[in-house]
């Protein structure tokens, strides 16, 4: 099946049913604002697979050879890089599986998901190639706090970072440079980029998921091409 590559639009994705339960602490200064979540609709479409799915792709994540339950979302439901890192529970003709969205399938129709071969084999015989599925967004099974990954080349004059290890899809990232929180634009390759730079750091960030839950992290140092843990995780869902 065809590879799903590069570029997308920036929109906001809605994910699964949630409650306003507490968060997992990982130390440091933080705050959590919890709000109720609305139920997520069930989608229908086709599942296919692509041979070289390795956990990387348009979302800019690293390969995950030990976790190949991943997929590429169709262009419409991908909705820009906001879908990156979210999880979807699929039901196929011969089984069901929860996957993480790591890539984009530009030629897939609305409702379709292109899977890794390992994930496809959980819902149907691999030789079928294409099968009907239903799916809905669900919370990702994560442990520990969210993580901030600074891009290669990121510095105090051009600062780019990505949110990783999040339970629900990310809606926005804001930075406080001393005069209140300001939203950081999100690029199609799933990095939030401040073209004028955020300064040398450490930084104060406010991260909002698609349900309106917010995390505030302070004293986040800049570490180029590295991940820095935040202090908490978004509230769990029922």
Descriptive account of the structure:
It contains two helices and 15 strands. With 238 residues, it is mainly beta. The protein has two domains: 101 residues, Beta Barrel (Barwin-like endoglucanases); 83 residues, Sandwich (Immunoglobulin-like). The longest helix is centred in the middle third of the chain and has 7 residues. The protein starts with 29 loop residues before the first strand and ends in a 9-residue tail after the last strand.
Key features of this structure:
15 strands, mainly beta, Immunoglobulin-like, elongated, 238 residues, disordered N terminus, 2 domains, Barwin-like endoglucanases
Helix and strand content put the structural class at mainly beta
- Number of structural domains: 2
Mean pLDDT: 87
- Report helical residue fraction: under 10%
- The CATH homologous superfamily of the largest domain: RlpA-like domain
Number of strands: 15
Our measurement of the CA-to-CA distance between the termini, rounded to an integer number of angstroms, reads 35 Å
Helix segment count?
Answer: 2
Backbone shape: elongated
- The succession of helices and strands, N to C, reads EEEHEEEHEEEEEEEEE
Can you identify the CATH class of the largest domain?
Mainly Beta
* CATH topology descriptor of the largest domain: Barwin-like endoglucanases
Ranges where pLDDT stays below 50 over 5 or more residues in a row are 1-29
Radius of gyration: 18 Å
What CATH architecture of the largest domain do you see?
Beta Barrel
Describe the largest sheet.
6 strands, mixed, barrel
* Beta-strand proportion: 35-45%
Describe the strand arrangement of the main beta sheet, using strand numbers.
2-6-3-5-4-7
